[in-house]
């Protein structure tokens, strides 16, 4: 990877020496690939964990296709910004009012040999399988080269690097609506050569503890998981919602948890992988135990998805009390992780 | 989740692609494992797509009979709903809802048509017409 940095001087338009790495999630994947490319080896779970990204939020005020927003991680850009603070990385961000200016700036950076991150809308990226194309405006990817109007992209959720024509890329960068990217691009201005893991890891874990265990409102963190369970019971009691809406709603929760690039169980396995990797740097016993407990929490989330899916397809009688109790089980297991991590 | 428990259900929604999952190996360490899909997830995806598709077919029928404007069909065809389309074009929902009425849509100003074309990625002719035959899927 390091030889790629050496040839930064040329105004090449050929794809440069860049190693595509597949990730579970776009933003953590982009940052892991970018830092590794510039000489700071970084895995996706480590990027995710160092930026204290794990969360849970049930936000009925924000609607996605008429359903409440349910998030398992902190909002977009949290990882990029969190890493800046945690490891002393410096990133340059730029958005554009004018679309052609946004495209020329991208071209200029690529032609200088820079690796550029973009915020895009999934729907307009032609290489996505048709059934995965939904309007989500905060999808991150890397551009590592271009040949005329064909861009070489490293989209972290794909197995291989892909290409995208200029017109489509422009549309994806400038799609309007919630979380509109406004052509946002970003690239590093300074990448540290190493991370003081024994220092950074406990800080990141303490910050994540506050999000999950000490959130000031009941819809965030571990309490938010219990709140969702109560909400399911409420929906099931509502005569207008207890049939069609309840099924769609459960399907929506499953999609938010599993489909939207979470690495399984709403990022719980990514975080468990972070704790596992972190245990090699510091607090070995404690972090390994916390990782195993987080895996149990993730397994329980997967069970929730499985049971909800069966109920939606009438392979099992609809029983929201059972779903509520599984969610409380997830919350209990996550709380036991944070009670343990509090000691760090 | 253990490595050997990572689902490999060959989901059609993945179109032959694999997604990366994280799972525990024999030594208790985490590792990335490619998954060809999980039935639970792909069912949820397909249910969501079917719900949009029902609206899309119904809009095509009604637009064919002049009961709604082609805009409603194109909105669902682009996997949008009223609130998302309104956000994308930057109008209040009640205005977009008015534009779904054929008489009002027919009188729409050039600048508003332009905004809908941009939001939906369609040419003027496409926006103002319907596909001949009912769309498949």
Could you please describe the fold and organization of this structure?
The complex is a heterodimer of chains A (344) and B (137). Chain A has 12 helices and 8 strands. By secondary structure, chain A is an alpha+beta fold. Chain A folds into 2 domains: 3-42 and 90-190, Cathepsin B, Chain A (Alpha-Beta Complex), CATH 3.90.70; 197-341, no CATH class. Chain A has a 6-stranded antiparallel β-sheet with strand order 3-8-4-5-6-7, with helices on both faces. In chain A, β5 (139-147) and β6 form a beta hairpin. Chain A is globular. Chain A starts with a helix and ends with a helix. Chain B is mostly helical and 137 residues long. Chain B folds into 2 domains: 3-37, no CATH class; 51-128, 434 Repressor (Amino-terminal Domain). Chain B is 51% helix and 9% strand. Chain B has helices spanning 39-64, 70-77, 82-89, 93-99, 102-106, 110-120, 124-128; strands spanning 19-24, 30-35. Chain B has a two-stranded antiparallel ribbon with strand order 1-2. In chain B, a hairpin with a 5-residue loop joins β1 and β2 (30-35). The two termini of chain B are 35 Å apart. The model of chain B has no long low-confidence stretch (mean pLDDT 94). At the A-B interface, α9, α10 and α11 of A face β1, β2, α1 and α3 of B.
């Amino acid at each position: 990877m390091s030889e790629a940095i050496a040839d930064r001087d040329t105004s090449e338009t050929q794809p440069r020496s860049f190693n595509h790495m597949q990730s579970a999630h776009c933003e953590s994947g982009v940052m892991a690939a970018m830092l590794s490319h510039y000489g700071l080896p970084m895995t996706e779970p480590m990027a995710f964990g160092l930026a204290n990204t794990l969360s849970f939020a049930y936000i009925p005020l924000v609607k996605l296709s008429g359903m409440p927003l349910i998030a398992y991680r902190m909002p977009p850009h949290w990882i990029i910004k969190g890493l800046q603070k945690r490891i002393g990385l410096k990133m340059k961000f730029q958005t554009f009012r004018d679309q052609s200016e946004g495209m020329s700036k991208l071209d200029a950076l690529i032609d200088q040999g820079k690796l550029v991150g973009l915020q895009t809308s999934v729907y307009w990226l032609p290489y996505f399988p048709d059934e995965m194309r939904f309007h989500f405006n905060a999808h991150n990817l890397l551009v590592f080269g271009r040949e005329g109007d064909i861009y070489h992209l490293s989209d972290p959720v794909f197995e291989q690097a892909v290409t995208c024509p200029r017109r489509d890329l422009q549309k994806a960068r400038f799609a309007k609506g919630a979380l509109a990217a406004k052509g946002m691009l970003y690239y590093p201005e300074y990448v540290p050569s190493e991370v003081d893991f024994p220092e950074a890891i406990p800080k990141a874990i303490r910050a994540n503890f506050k999000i999950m265990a000490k959130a000031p409102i009941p819809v965030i963190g571990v309490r938010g998981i219990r709140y969702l369970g109560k909400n399911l019971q409420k929906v099931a009691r509502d005569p207008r919602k207890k049939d069609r809406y309840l099924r769609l709603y459960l399907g929506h929760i499953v999609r938010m948890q599993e489909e939207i690039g979470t690495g399984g169980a709403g990022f719980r396995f990514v975080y468990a992988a972070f704790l596992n990797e972190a245990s090699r740097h510091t607090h070995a016993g404690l972090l390994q135990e916390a990782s195993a407990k987080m895996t149990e929490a993730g397994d329980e989330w997967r069970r929730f998805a499985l049971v909800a899916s069966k109920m939606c397809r009438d392979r099992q009688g609809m029983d929201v009390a059972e779903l509520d109790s599984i969610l409380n089980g997830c919350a209990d297991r996550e709380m036991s992780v944070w009670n343990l991590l509090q000691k760090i | 989740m253990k490595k050997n428990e990572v689902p490999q259900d060959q989901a059609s929604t993945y179109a032959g692609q694999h997604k990366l999952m994280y799972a525990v190996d024999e030594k208790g360490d985490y590792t990335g494992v490619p998954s060809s899909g999980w039935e639970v997830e792909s069912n949820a995806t397909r249910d969501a797509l079917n719900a949009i598709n029902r609206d899309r077919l119904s809009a095509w029928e009604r637009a064919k009979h002049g009961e709604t404007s082609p805009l409603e069909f194109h909105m669902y065809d682009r996997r949008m709903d009223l609130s998302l389309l309104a956000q994308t074009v930057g109008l209040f929902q009640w205005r977009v809802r008015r534009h779904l009425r054929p008489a009002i849509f027919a009188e729409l100003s050039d600048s508003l048509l332009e905004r809908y074309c941009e939001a939906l990625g369609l040419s003027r002719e496409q926006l103002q017409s319907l596909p001949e035959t009912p769309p498949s899927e």
